[in-house]
Every structure is written in C-alpha cells, then in structure tokens.
Amino acid sequence: MRLIDLARVIRSKNAGPLHLTLDILFADAAGYDRAARSPALAAPAIASLYGVDPATVAVIPFPAAHALKVVLDRPIVAGSPGDADVYGAQQHRPLLGVIL
Amino acid sequence: MSVVGRLLDRRLGPGQPLRVLSASGQLGNGIPEAALQAGLAREPHVIGCDMGSIDPGPYYLGAGRMATSPAITRRDLRLAILGARQARVPVLIGTAGTAGAAPHVAATLDLIRGIVREAGISLRIAVIHADMDRAWLKAMAAADRIRAIGAIGALTAAEIDGAAHIVGQMGTEAFLRALAMEPDVILAGRACDTAVFAAVPLLLGYPAGPATHMAKIIECTSLCCTPGGRDAMLGTLHGDHFDLESMNPARAATPLTVAAHSLYEQADPLHVQEPAGTLNVAAARFEALDDRRVRVHGATWTPATQPSIKIEGSSWIGERAVLLAATCDPRVIEHHAGITEGVRRIVAEIMPGETYDLRFRAYGSGATSLFPGAAPMPTPGELFFLVECIAATAELAKAVVGVAKQNLLHFGFPGRLSTGGNIAFPFTPPEIPAGPAYRFSAYHIADCDDLASAFPITLETLR
C-alpha cells in the first residue's frame, strides 16, 4: 500500500533552526497501526530515503494523534548560506513515494 | 485598583475557571477582529499575544527589523491593548517585534506610545529585556556551562563578540516579576511562547503542568482546530484540567486536532523544555465536550534542578545580491551543472583575489531539497537559476552576479544550439541587491543561576 493513500497529512517543518521534523498523520488508529508496524517507516528506511546516517534519525510514535514523527538533523542551519528551505516546509517529498 | 490587583482580588485559583484569551499567535499579521470581540465578550481574565518566532530565519534578529508591516502591527497592538483596557484585564505580549532584541522592543514600544497618545489614555507598561549580557555569556562558555542544541558550533567568545544581537528566551519567572509591578501591559523581548499564557495562571496558584500545556496549545490561537486558523482561542483552566474553544464558531477543536497540534514544530511531542522545568504530556487525555470544544487532563510538570536559558544569536556575514534567470532549452538543462561550474571558473579568473560566496541554485533539478542524498528529480522541461552571491560589500556582490550573468548567458558547451543566449531574464535588471545577510551563530542552552538578573524589567507610564 502507498503511504500517500493511507496518510491524511505528510508534512515537514523546522523544530528550531537545527532540526527538521516530518509528521505523518493518519485518519484512524487502524491506519496508524499499519504504518507504525511497517519497516518502510523505521529509522533505517527513512535514513536511506534521505541519504543520511541512521544514527541521526529518530522516529517517535504518537498514537494519541494517530501520528508518527520523524526528527532529522538539518544539514544546514536554517537561513545560513546554502540553506534552501528556511522554514523546512518542503522536505517531505522523499516520503511521498513510500510503499508500506 | 490596578488590573492585576483586581485579578488577585477575585479569589481565583484551582477549582475556579480561569479564562485565558489568546488574541494572536503572530501579532502583526492581522488579528481577525470578529473572533477577538467574541473572546472579549466571554470576559477573559487575561489576554496574551505572541509576536515572534525564530522560524523566519536569522535576518530579523540580526538586522533588528520586524518581519511584519508597521501599519498592521500597530493595528493589532491597538486591538489587543484597547481590548484589554475595555475588559480591565492585563495584556501580555511576548517576543516583541519578531525577534525580541532591543531594537524590536524599542520599535514595538514606539508603536504603543503612538496608540496611547492617539487614544488619549495613560498606560503602565512593564518592559522585560531579553538581550543577553555578553560578559556573562563568555564566562558561562568558559565554564563549559553552555551546550549546543543540535548541529551548530560551540559558542566561542569570538562568536559572542561577533553577533549582531543575542537574546535569551525568558520563561514565566520574568513575567511573574513583571506582574508583581501591577502593569496594564507587559511587553517582553524574546520569550517562550508558553510563558506569555502560563504566567497569570501560575500567579493565581494554578498547577504548572496543565497551565503550561494549555499555554502551549493556545499560543498558536486556533491552529489546533479543524479547519485550523488564526482566530482568537479561549483556554479555560479549572485546575487539573482545561477546556479549549475557538472564538470563531466555524473552527472546531476535536480530541484528534488538539493532540495532533502537540506535534507541530516540536522535535519531541511528549516533553517541552522550559527555563524552569519540563512539561510532560505523555499521559495527557483529550476528551470532546461537544463537537467543537475539548477538555484536556493529565499534563505534569517537573521543575528543573538547574534553570537554563535558550540563547539565540545572529551574525552579519555580508551583503547579498541575486540573479534571476531561466532556461527551457533541453541541452542547457542537460548540461547545466557543467555550465554553472564553468561560469564559476570564469568569474574567478575575471575577479582574482576577491573573496565572495557564489552559489548557483537550479530549480527544477532538486534545488529545494536540503538532502543531497535523497532521490534525484526527474529531468524537467524548464529550469530556473537563482544565482546568489554574498560578499563584504553590496557593490562586490552585485559585480559578481553581474559577471556570472553575462557568462551564463553566453557560455559555450558541446552541442550548444542556443548561441543567442542560454537563459531568459524575466525582467531587467535581473541582478538585484538583496540586502544584508545573516546566519544564526547561537542556538544553545546556557545554565543560569539567576534568571531574574538575566531579564531586567523597566516600568514606564505612557501618556
């Protein structure tokens, strides 16, 4: 199953200028459970999607909101030379191709 | 009697409903007036507004400028201050003027002076300053009592000296000291969003866990609703639980939307670190009161053994100029990486000995991504070049992008057909000075043994 067909929200945003968070929200507990169990959304798979060290990826389950949160280090401090996304709001694209 | 004195006189406390009205999460972007008036009609005990954030990047803190327009900021300040005056309650404003350093506080105070003069009223205002003492910062850094929050360099003495502005995020401690002076308005420099809304509940003896959790949710006004929006939000704190209601009847707070809001812009949705302790919402329960109001239980608070301050600093790094251009030629698109590297070499040959930072961003080809290791974009039908230079002077930055422009236009490469020019300019001149450039030089946590002296307060009566 494609993640984009199961998730209600797939978004990215800074959490401060040094971290980026990806939120994946599901409509119900069943959708959340299915995604939370999938290795496609575990830290090693996310690290490979973003081409980063798995040690810098945290996946935090938040069942109260039927949500998974991913926290990544920003490769560049927000707004420094070479940054491309000051708010970090367009870094969710690699998740759009995930198959659970 | 002062508005704070009236509050203290009303025998509020756990068991009694305390109504906190969040008028704005981004004051200066236009407070929706109907919802604010609906909120005032509910007789709030205190009004809070947040005015800033670190999100817009290092420019505003570094340059000492507001991100919002002065006219709209003045309008919003007027609505909040005169609304609170009419309701005879205090109004607390956090992170004045986008970034909360001295020039932001001064500019906001100037706008408030104008409002007071125009309205013919007088106002007691407590101003809390958030600029960090650099000698203290250096001493703390030398004592190894400052740590980075993530991937940023150590806060050295050179970084501390080089920053244009360095602020610390104040917590409820500073607002409580200001409330003790019984002002009508508190105008704070850089402040934790939560402190603006949790201070009065703490003053009146409500428990810190639910008070801070409620503050954390309402500081973004109706963003925790469906559909999310910027209308005023009312939080009613009872003691160990609180109720949430948007002041726009079209917006509904549901258990799911409120829980989901805990994720927003937060690295750890379960723990929120504040100067004086940590909010823990792991055991929070969200219960629907009806189809648009939510009751929340279960947040707890752990006081810090070592109080600390989050430090934010921004340093000037040069003047920026940019060039805007595009191509729809498949061969230019195919060869763009080699073309821009060739242009970079020519610029270096033409301007030897000059120091500058030249970057070519090819939009359509992955320029939006922060992660070079992510899957590449498919080959686009057109490509947009944003060429950027940062140099010591605006003249040098503009000269560099000007030379880059001419050479990008006429760069020769194998198989080139486009000898009339490789790129299209949308207007002229296509090279544009973009003003001073900054970077965050501090985003650290500093231990602080004396929060009161870190955030001094001045009290003034405006007429």
TrEMBL record, chain A:
<feature type="domain" description="DUF4387">
    <location>
        <begin position="3"/>
        <end position="98"/>
    </location>
</feature>
<protein>
    <submittedName>
        <fullName>DUF4387 domain-containing protein</fullName>
    </submittedName>
</protein>
<dbReference type="InterPro" id="IPR025496">
    <property type="entry name" value="DUF4387"/>
</dbReference>
<dbReference type="Pfam" id="PF14330">
    <property type="entry name" value="DUF4387"/>
</dbReference>
UniProtKB/TrEMBL annotation, chain B:
<feature type="domain" description="Acyclic terpene utilisation N-terminal">
    <location>
        <begin position="254"/>
        <end position="401"/>
    </location>
</feature>
<dbReference type="InterPro" id="IPR010839">
    <property type="entry name" value="AtuA_N"/>
</dbReference>
<protein>
    <submittedName>
        <fullName>Acyclic terpene utilization AtuA family protein</fullName>
    </submittedName>
</protein>
<dbReference type="Pfam" id="PF07287">
    <property type="entry name" value="AtuA"/>
</dbReference>
<feature type="domain" description="Acyclic terpene utilisation N-terminal">
    <location>
        <begin position="105"/>
        <end position="200"/>
    </location>
</feature>
